[in-house]
Design goal:
alpha+beta, four-stranded antiparallel β-sheet, 125 residues, Alpha-Beta Plaits
């Protein structure tokens, strides 16, 4: 550094440079982590019973590093559900290995579409 004055007790320039590099690397790593989505919440509407959607969802995650958590199914009435009244389902897709779930979400969306369900909302958690 030209014209810089070193005072007693100041850290050496090399140590200061290393600290700044480490801070920059940490900021970059934090940005990359922030872009990775390890959990996504879905809200679906439709007829779930006859389509065996839960069984198909279970088959989709079997032997894979993903899980379905916080699943809720709301039906207006049991008789209504038997008469094909639409119901609402909420659940979260999560990675069991803290990986990005986005590649897997394409398969989940496809399963939803194949079963004639409506994807009401999808939110990164």
């Amino acid at each position: 550094m030209v014209g810089a004055v070193a005072y007693p007790g100041d850290p050496p320039v090399d140590a200061q440079r290393k600290r700044l590099e480490a801070m920059a690397a940490r900021t970059e790593a934090e940005q990359e982590i922030a872009e990775v989505s390890t959990r996504v919440r879905l809200e679906l509407a439709g007829e779930f019973g006859e389509k065996r959607f839960l069984v198909k969802l279970e088959d989709l995650i079997r032997d894979r590093p993903y899980d379905i958590v916080n699943l809720r199914l709301e039906v207006p009435t049991v008789k209504g559900a038997m008469e094909k009244t639409p119901s609402v389902m909420w659940f979260e897709v999560t990675s069991t290995e803290q990986q990005d779930v986005e590649p897997f979400m394409a398969e989940v969306r496809s399963l939803v579409e194949e079963n004639g369900l409506v994807l009401v909302n999808e939110t990164r958690v």
